[in-house]
Specification:
Elements lengths: L21 E5 L4 H12 L3 E6 L3 H13 L4 E5 L5 H15 L4 E4 L15 H22 L8 E5 L12 H20 L6 E7 L6 H5 L2 H5 L13 H12 L10 E4 L7
Parallel strand pairs: 1-2, 1-4, 2-3, 4-5, 5-6, 6-7
Helix pairs in contact: 1-2, 1-8, 3-4, 4-5
Length: about 260
């Protein structure tokens, strides 16, 4: 990608806010997930890095985690398969000793101009990767999470202001926002919090890989700050939600949109 996204490799400074915590982050090989993994490690958390098949990128994320003095576990596989979601959680429990934070961040999108252009298989894959995977991950993780646990879903401005060209993606992002709202109420008696982060335009590999070149060229200029966000600019919100400082924050939808309001 040109320019290269900023994941906070050379800028994020930790202060022990997640000391001793064990985190699972999906889609952590690149983009927002990578920035969150780096920030979590520098805040004192061990991290399981879940990714699809970008082995080199995942190794790079693991390197940054380890350079922060924390343990990194990597696991490749397709989160559209429920069995793999359970495998991710089993690896985290086995190698990290438990789970304190689950960040469901991996996602798929593809721009299509009309509903007739959306292949049935693409619809099913988007639903399975973006929303069903979160369900299976949470279901498997909750028995291993204690009071103070935190679940964070990556939703999108598209949950509230859906783009027609991203119909399947927007549907899943609305589902994530609502799932987190339900989980916040369902899991409150166990002391587990659930929140979601709603990014606006963020410069990640998903953008040039799934959008027409003419849309990529002007990506992010439509928001008041007139530029796309960098993954590093999202990470502090995830750190806050994962930390004990957010002990009374549950059921929240936090927008990081470059100035575009979400009502």
């Amino acid at each position: 990608m040109q320019p290269q996204p900023d994941h906070g490799e050379h800028s994020y400074r930790g202060s022990g806010r997640l000391a001793g915590k064990r985190a699972v982050i999906t889609g952590a090989d690149s983009g927002i997930g990578k920035a969150v993994a780096i920030a979590f490690a520098r805040e004192g958390a061990d991290v399981l890095i879940s990714y699809l098949d970008e082995e080199e990128d995942a190794r790079d994320t693991a390197r940054w985690v380890e350079e922060a003095g924390r343990k990194a576990v990597t696991i490749a596989g397709n989160l559209a398969e429920p069995a793999h979601c359970r495998e991710v959680i089993e690896r985290a429990v086995g190698e990290l000793g438990g789970i304190d934070v689950l960040v469901s961040n991996a996602a798929f999108q593809m721009a299509r101009e009309s509903i007739e252009d959306v292949p049935d298989e693409e619809w099913d894959h988007t639903i399975a990767t973006n929303i069903s995977a979160m369900f299976h991950l949470v279901k498997a993780a909750v028995p291993h999470m204690g009071p103070g646990g935190s679940i964070i879903g990556t939703t999108s401005v598209n949950y509230a202001t859906p783009l027609p060209q991203l119909l399947p993606y927007a549907v899943t992002k609305a589902g994530i926002a609502n799932m987190c709202g339900s989980l916040a109420q369902m899991l409150a008696p166990r002391g587990i919090r659930a929140n979601s982060v709603a990014p606006g335009p963020v410069w990640t590999p998903l953008i040039p890989a799934t959008m027409p070149p003419e849309q990529v060229e002007g990506f992010g200029t439509e928001v008041p700050l007139e530029r796309p966000g960098q993954p590093a600019e999202l990470a502090p919100v995830y750190v806050m939600l994962a930390s004990d400082e957010a002990s009374y924050v549950s059921g929240a939808f936090i927008a990081v949109t470059g100035g575009k309001p979400i009502l």
